[in-house]
Amino acid sequence: MRSIRRFTDATVLDLGCGTGYHLPLLAAEAASVIGVEPHGDLVTWARVRTRKLPNVRVLHGSAHRIPLPSSSIDVTQARWAYFFGPGCEPGLQELDRVIRHGGVAFIVDNDATRSTFGRWFTAALRSYDPGAVDEFFARRGWSVLRREMRWKFETRADLEAVVRIEFAPASAGWILREHQGLEVDYAVNIRFRHY
């Protein structure tokens, strides 16, 4: 993402920041970082995580109602928040509103067309159509970078815990029965749009 738009001296929005895992990393580079999260308990965790970082704020809000003024953000990242394309229009309209001219939005999501995780994802969610999602974003002026990554776990219990978070019980069951080892290859799409 930094090869497309550096975060230095930027006001950065982490949309759907969860427990705030990425906020300290962003705060080390950006002038100002704002986390927005719809789930109150996760807002609390993110605030605890960032309580000693003076350039970070965490707000309760959602993608379709971002609690920020218009044209106030230079860079936005949303990780694993816009998987499905159609239905995301209100959130994308909010990005149009809050991002300044010259800003960039990034959406990181699963690339379900490749990797072990992608195969699991499409098997567990048969209605998911990755081609339709790509077309949805392309029609709206978004570009995409495709990247590979890997989960590496120290213990089988850690891998099993994450699989059970990511998938419904029935899917997690067959995934864990079929998958041996402590690593999983994982492909992602980094979608981006200049404003």
Q: How would you describe this protein?
A:
With 195 residues, the chain is of the alpha/beta class. The protein has a domain at 11-111 and 129-149 and 188-194: Rossmann fold. Helices cover 33% and strands 29% of the residues. It has seven helices and seven strands, in the order E-H-E-H-E-E-H-E-H-H-E-H-H-E. The chain has helices at residues 23-27, 40-49, 89-98, 116-124, 130-139, 156-166, 169-178, and strands at residues 11-15, 32-37, 56-60, 73-79, 99-110, 143-152, 183-194. The protein has a seven-stranded mixed β-sheet with strand order 3-2-1-4-5-7-6. Helix 6 (156-166) runs antiparallel to helix 7. The longest helix is centred in the last third of the chain and has 11 residues, at 156-166. It is globular. The mean pLDDT is 94.
Brief characterization of the structure:
The chain has 195 residues and is an alpha/beta fold.
Mean pLDDT over all positions: 94
User: What portion of residues belong to β-strands?
Assistant: 25-35%
CA radius of gyration is: 17 Å
- Amount of helix: 25-40%
Shape: globular
The SS-based structural class is alpha/beta
Q: Order of helices and strands, N to C?
A: EHEHEEHEHHEHHE
Helical segment count: 7
Second-tier CATH architecture of the domain at 11-111 and 129-149 and 188-194:
3-Layer(aba) Sandwich
Q: Largest sheet, if any?
A: 7 strands, mixed
- Could you give me the name of the CATH homologous superfamily of the domain at 11-111 and 129-149 and 188-194? Vaccinia Virus protein VP39
DSSP E strands, number = 7
The low-pLDDT segments are: none
- CATH fold field value of the domain at 11-111 and 129-149 and 188-194: Rossmann fold
Oligomer type: single chain
Q: What is the CATH domain class of the domain at 11-111 and 129-149 and 188-194? A: Alpha Beta
Strand order, sheet with most strands: 3-2-1-4-5-7-6
Report the end-to-end length measured between terminal Cα atoms: 15 Å
